[in-house]
Amino acid sequence: LGAAKLVVVVAIFLFTFYVISQVFEIKMDANLGHIFARSALDAAARSTKPPRYKCGISKACPEKHFAFKMASGAANVVGPKICVEDNVLMSGVKNNVGRGINVALVNGKTGEPLDTKFFDMWGGDVAPFIEFLKSIQDGTIVLMGTYDDGATK
């Protein structure tokens, strides 16, 4: 009795599958080798990593443009990070960031880094920061990020 029920269930399943394949015109000419080969290719396609762009940005920059990514710091815990053309100019890892305003200068024509400095705007003097800003030449890209307190003075 149990075997008869199993045969009926399998027959109904096969009949339903046949009807669906006829209605949706599913081709059944694939052999087992093709099925396994296709699944291996699909797995390989799924395992490929997405492309990596300069500075970890989401898409490639057009020609004659610089790729850059900036992130200001978080309170006094995480320092700012400035990256230009896949070159990290300032970061906590490089240990060249400090409390206040962090500045990176980049040549506007070549993308080459020129200088990096930070200015304490809480306990430090503002005069060196103003003098630094006045000394920046035309055609220089100025990138700034804050860390801890960027605007007390």
From TrEMBL:
Cited Pfam families: ILEI
Keywords assigned: Disulfide bond, Lectin, Membrane, Secreted, Signal, Transmembrane, Transmembrane helix
Compartment annotation: Secreted
GO MF, one annotated term: carbohydrate binding
Protein name: FAM3C protein
PROSITE patterns cross-referenced by the UniProt entry: GG_LECTIN
Chain ranges of the ILEI/PANDER domain: 99-152
Family: Belongs to the FAM3 family.
InterPro entries listed in its UniProt record: FAM3, ILEI/PANDER_dom
GO cellular component, as recorded: extracellular region
UniProt lineage: Eukaryota, Metazoa, Chordata, Craniata, Vertebrata
Transmembrane segments: 6-24
Organism: Psilopogon haemacephalus
